[in-house]
What does this fold into?
Amino acid sequence: VASGAADSYFQDLTVQGTHLRVLTQKVAPGIAVQVARPLEETDLVLGRLAFFLVVLALCGIAVAAMLGGAVARGALAPVRSLTRTAEHVTTTSDLTKRIAVEGDDELARLAASFNSMLEALEVSIGKQRQLVADASHELRTPLTSIRTNIEVLQRREDLPAGERRRLLADIVAQVEELT
It folds into this structure.
């Protein structure tokens, strides 16, 4: 610097355990001066700033995680509703429970489809129950007739042959109807 081969510059040094900033500056031809200043205050401020930045970053991450969780819970609320309804139907066989459909996104379409499926299943089970009730009624009538005719044949051994043949023919007819 004194010879003019280089410009003035700053340099950080540690001298006897003290952190210094040294300025080397040309003051006259062939003469350079070095001025040093301790960096304890600056290092202290930078240390505090680093600490506050780390704390601020951690707080920012925590707030972002909480907000992200809140957004995720809100976005997944329809999925939880669909899951609860499916579990309710599974455990109780109650097909009357429906999911509230809001919006027109994929989850709303899924909820509407699930509701339609529950309705179709409810109608199908209702028809099945009606079929079983009708079949039960249709089976009871010939069974009652057969039972009555057999009881008459058991109790009345002195029944005329024509009457006996008519009861037996009726029993055969009722058995064919059951078949």
Observations:
- The first strand starts at residue 9 and ends at 15.
- Strands lie at 9-15, 18-28, 31-38.
- The mean pLDDT is 88.
- The helical segments are 40-92, 106-155, 161-178.
